[in-house]
Write a structure and sequence with these properties.
This protein has helices spanning about 10-15, 20-25, 40-50, 55-65, 75-85, 95-100, 115-125; strands spanning about 1-10, 30-40, 65-75, 110. With about 140 residues, it is an alpha+beta fold. It has a single domain (about 1-125), classed as 2-Layer Sandwich (Alpha-Beta Plaits), CATH 3.30.70. The mean pLDDT is about 90. It is about 40% helix and about 20% strand. The protein has a four-stranded antiparallel sheet with strand order 2-3-1-4, with helices on both faces.
């Protein structure tokens, strides 16, 4: 069954120049439908991670930067993407987070965990205005 999912490549992956490697792993799973960059601010981060008990000011500051959003389609794509991304806590070898040494919320990538959440996250990412970080 063809479905869609939404992924965000985080600032640490951009800084470490891992974008191409990550996109390559994702493209092996399904069709890349859309890709775009956004510079999001604190309010967007709070909306995106609403209800996350691990949301901290440090995480908000980290995510209030350039991000790459990706929409993928394919058979069972939500589960397949989540599998290749790996756990944020103890990623398995062969996953993006394990192979590229992700730590804590600086874990390179976010992937929607449900089809329904992918739709909501994609809309929020595309609709919210870009905001520059106050430096």
């Amino acid at each position: 069954m063809i479905e869609y999912t939404f992924v965000i490549i985080k600032p640490d992956a951009i800084e470490r120049r891992l974008v191409g490697k990550i996109i390559g792993k994702l493209e092996a799973l399904g069709e890349l439908i859309w890709i775009g960059t956004r510079n999001k601010g604190c309010e967007w981060v709070k909306q995106h991670y609403a209800g996350n008990p691990h949301l901290t000011e440090e995480m908000i500051d980290f995510m209030s930067d350039w991000l790459i959003g990706i929409v993928l389609s394919g058979d069972d794509i939500v589960a397949r993407v989540r599998q290749i991304v790996g756990s944020a806590v103890n990623p398995e070898p062969g996953t993006i987070r394990f192979d590229y040494g992700a730590k804590g919320f600086r874990n390179l990538i976010h992937a929607a965990d449900l089809k329904e959440k992918a739709i909501i996250e994609e809309a929020l990412f595309m609709e919210a205005p870009n905001e520059q970080k106050n430096s």
